[in-house]
Amino acid sequence: MTKFLLSLHVLAAIIAVGPVAVAASMFPRSLRRAHEDSGAVTGLHLLHRVCRVYAGVGIAVPVFGFATASNMHVLGSAWLITAIGLTAVAAGVLALWILPAQQAALAELGTAEPGTAEPGTSEAPPESQGGPAVRTAARLAAATGIFNLLWATVTILMIVRPGSTTGA
Description:
Layout: H1 2-34, H2 39-57, H3 60-72, H4 78-108, H5 130-160
């Protein structure tokens, strides 16, 4: 049962966290381009949607992680408690910093979700807002870097497991 739960945990992490890490990392560069290329705005909406949807799917990662840790009797291990804390911080960075900043950047561009614009309105970004978009993109890049660094640290803890008695 432990191997099955561990497999589900690892698959959930790959399937959920991977797309968020990639999409969130691509968003700042696409945001910088959106002021010159109206086609990039559609890409921004897609990247934001990927982040939002896979953040929800990502709930499966700690669920399977807790089940696996419980089955392995390691819930009190320092490395696991540290990994749980870092996972909570990463989730907070995503939910409280990255996703709202992406949504605000899309609002700043004055765009609605593709296909929802009112007749007679333009989804093209205003050209005069290049300065704020660059700052927003820089802040998003920093937040995404922190998010990715947190997940890399959790991954290393899961592999190395300092003080582990499981033999791996």
